[in-house]
């Protein structure tokens, strides 16, 4: 949708809401007169391959959403949209609604990790009690250990802090990926010290360098120990809708929960973080308090999402997914991902053509990590400082195993090749100046 159409559609939407307030509001009963599951019969089971028209979408808003105004439509569209998305990612059937599993929209990946941790904590406490481990909850919680790689996002450490459990950061290998053996060794060491492993977060597409923890090794370790495996693919997850990137998700069958942010790379506005459980019973058990004023006659027929996350009230965020998936179609969304990856590859080629630079990590998606070759961390940090002070482009650095590097990240849906060429010209100009000034230093 270009700016011109956006302007027009935006004005139409204001009229739609104003018409509702002026003419229609009293036509609708306060409680929607629809049966649980009504929406499933009105919406296809899968996302469209090709883009659909905005007018068709708005017709459906009137015909299928408005009769279920307020909660039923909000819950049911979310169930169906999370199934659409799960099918686009080719998630195992266990994550699709109908059985014990299913998806829910959280606000952010940080919340998803925290919710998964709390569910896993509750599951482990129940298991320990069944197996006659005596002690108060707080004593047992003090022995629980969560695991992630040293490349995991800071939100994992924070989830542990909030959940009052220990966080063991496993040392990643030389390409910054967590390996099964290292995880196993970390757990063994903790168990020998009387601690109880209960939760592992594997990251696909780490924030510092877009590395991928080895799911096919980590999964069996978690399975053997009956430990909850959560997968954080906040950034990279969007790419897995393309068959050529889906192999990064191999091993997903071992996961108890999986999360990625359509608001990061799938053209959905903030906030929209997609999370799936293999067995939602664990999170429901952990979060269920059930006062009388929240009971209703349809319990058990559709997910009670209030037990799947921290807030009670919820926004109608699935509308964003519905609009985006239909307006772009699977094809359009794949094209968007491929365009970014191809621009990142072109930037990589520019770096490769200049012997002063070296690429520090494999370029798999839209992130390119690099540094000045054979130069100290200080000089590289100075280059980044100058780039950001210059102000024409902006970059964020990282550091892995003592090596400082610059990160070129493609984020905007509007980025085109000339923008990449422009960024490259800024980087080379500032690097030339810096290297000239530092000729006599390392
Ligand atoms: C961005 C990111 C996060 C944090 O996402 P929020 O939705 O802002 O909480 C967590 N993990 C990874 C791997 C990320 O890329």
UniProtKB/TrEMBL annotation:
Identify the domain of life: Eukaryota
| Assembly | Homodimer.
Q: What is its EC number?
A: 4.1.1.28
Q: What is this protein called?
A: Aromatic-L-amino-acid decarboxylase
Natural source organism: Paralvinella palmiformis
**Pfam families registered for this protein in UniProt:** Pyridoxal_deC
EC top class, as a word: lyase
Keyword annotations of the record: Catecholamine biosynthesis, Decarboxylase, Lyase, Pyridoxal phosphate
User: Is the keyword NAD assigned to this protein?
Assistant: no
> Which example biological process does GO assign this protein?
amino acid metabolic process
**Any Gene Ontology CC annotation:** cytoplasm
> What molecular functions are annotated in GO for this chain?
aromatic-L-amino-acid decarboxylase activity; pyridoxal phosphate binding
Cofactors named for this entry: pyridoxal 5'-phosphate
């Amino acid at each position: 949708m270009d700016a011109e159409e956006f302007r027009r559609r935006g004005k139409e939407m204001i009229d739609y809401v104003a018409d509702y307030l002026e003419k229609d509001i009293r036509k609708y009963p306060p409680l929607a007169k629809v049966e649980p599951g009504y929406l499933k019969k009105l919406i296809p089971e899968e996302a469209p391959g090709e883009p659909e028209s905005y007018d068709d979408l708005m017709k459906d808003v009137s015909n299928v959403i408005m009769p279920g105004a307020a909660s039923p439509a909000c819950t049911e569209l979310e169930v169906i949209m999370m199934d659409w998305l799960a099918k686009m990612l080719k998630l195992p059937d266990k994550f699709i609604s109908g059985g014990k599993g299913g998806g829910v929209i959280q606000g952010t990946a940080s919340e998803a990790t925290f919710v998964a941790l709390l569910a896993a904590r509750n599951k482990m406490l129940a298991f320990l009690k069944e197996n006659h481990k005596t002690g108060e909850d707080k004593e047992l919680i003090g022995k629980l250990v969560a695991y992630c790689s040293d490349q995991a996002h800071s939100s994992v450490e924070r989830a542990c802090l909030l959940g009052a459990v220990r966080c063991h950061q496993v040392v990643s290998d030389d390409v910054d990926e967590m390996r099964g053996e290292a995880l196993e060794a970390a757990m063994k060491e903790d168990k020998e010290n009387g601690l109880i492993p209960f939760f592992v977060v594997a990251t696909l597409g780490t924030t510092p360098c877009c590395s991928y923890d080895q799911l096919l090794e980590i999964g069996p370790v978690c399975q053997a120990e009956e430990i909850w495996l959560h997968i954080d693919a906040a950034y990279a997850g969007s790419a897995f809708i393309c068959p050529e990137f889906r192999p990064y998700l191999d091993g997903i069958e071992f996961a108890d929960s999986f999360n990625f942010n359509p608001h990061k790379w799938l053209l959905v506005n903030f906030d929209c973080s997609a999370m799936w459980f293999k067995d939602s019973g664990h999170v429901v058990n952990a979060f269920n308090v059930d006062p009388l004023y929240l009971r209703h006659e349809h319990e058990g027929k559709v997910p009670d999402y209030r037990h799947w996350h921290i807030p009670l009230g919820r926004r109608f965020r699935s509308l964003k997914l519905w609009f985006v998936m239909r307006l772009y179609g699977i094809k359009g969304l794949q094209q968007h991902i491929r365009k970014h990856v191809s621009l990142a590859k072109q930037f990589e080629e520019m770096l490769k053509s200049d012997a002063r630079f070296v690429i520090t990590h494999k370029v798999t998606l839209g992130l390119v990590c690099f540094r000045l070759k054979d130069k100290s961390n200080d000089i590289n940090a100075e280059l980044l400082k100058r780039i950001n002070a210059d102000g024409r482009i902006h970059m964020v650095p990282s550091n892995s195993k003592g090596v400082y590097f610059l990160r070129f990240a493609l984020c905007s849906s509007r980025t085109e090749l000339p923008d990449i060429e422009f960024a490259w010209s800024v980087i080379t100009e500032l690097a030339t100046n810096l290297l000239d000034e530092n000729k006599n230093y390392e």
